[in-house]
TrEMBL record:
Organism taxonomic ancestry: Bacteria, Pseudomonadati, Pseudomonadota, Gammaproteobacteria, Vibrionales
Highest taxon above the source species: Bacteria
Protein name as annotated: Cupin domain-containing protein
InterPro entries assigned: Cupin_2, RmlC-like_jellyroll, RmlC_Cupin_sf
Residue ranges of every copy of the Cupin type-2 domain listed in the record: 40-100
Pfam families: Cupin_2
Length: 107
């Protein structure tokens, strides 16, 4: 399957599709177009997340008010329990993300 196949033309809700889930690693394609996380909601995930923007643009805001702007090719590691939200995605074009969720094993 091609990561860019079966993209929606128009989307009302953000699209999340698991491409792989082994139980210890999950890889997800996310498609956004003007979608954001509600202002009163924060992601507080139990696993680490590595995300890359394959197309489009987005901003992620952390609970310490840090804002990270991501454009095509930009990637970011979000440690487990680092509160964050998607504060902006381009409303004029699809933003296609690839997110990898995993647990870090301490030695």
């Amino acid at each position: 399957m091609n990561i860019f196949s079966q993209l929606p033309n128009e989307i009302q809700d953000e699209e999340f599709i698991d491409l792989l889930n082994t139980g210890s690693v999950r890889i997800e394609r996310i498609v956004s177009k003007g979608h954001i996380t509600p202002a009163d909601k924060w992601y507080d995930q139990s696993e680490d997340e590595w995300v890359i923007v394959l197309e489009g643009k987005a901003e992620i805001t952390f609970d310490n008010d840090e804002i990270v702007t991501l454009e095509k090719g930009d990637h970011l590691h979000i440690p487990a329990h680092k509160k964050h939200r998607v504060s902006w995605t381009d409303p004029k074009q699809l933003t296609i993300w690839l997110a990898v969720f995993f647990d870090v094993i301490e030695n």
